[in-house]
Amino acid sequence: MQTNPTRGPSSVRSGTVTASSITVHWGEVSCLDRNGEITGYIAQAVRNGMVEGTASVGGDARQATISGLSPSTCTLSKWQQ
């Protein structure tokens, strides 16, 4: 039985930033922390507790671009569910 990873991806960082989008990059989740196959990632831009944008990518991806953001309102944080 698979469970959620013990830890999230390593080295989370921003890449290209425009007035309305941000590309987020991350490293691999270590084998010891995966607890099974990683089938996908969800990157979200949150402002004042509200989700402003979401990007979903497959488990092999190491980046995602979140588009449709309000200009100059983005900060980068990392968390996992």
Automatic annotation (TrEMBL):
<feature type="domain" description="Fibronectin type-III">
    <location>
        <begin position="8"/>
        <end position="81"/>
    </location>
</feature>
<dbReference type="InterPro" id="IPR036116">
    <property type="entry name" value="FN3_sf"/>
</dbReference>
<dbReference type="InterPro" id="IPR013783">
    <property type="entry name" value="Ig-like_fold"/>
</dbReference>
<dbReference type="InterPro" id="IPR003961">
    <property type="entry name" value="FN3_dom"/>
</dbReference>
<dbReference type="Pfam" id="PF00041">
    <property type="entry name" value="fn3"/>
</dbReference>
<protein>
    <recommendedName>
        <fullName>Fibronectin type-III domain-containing protein</fullName>
    </recommendedName>
</protein>
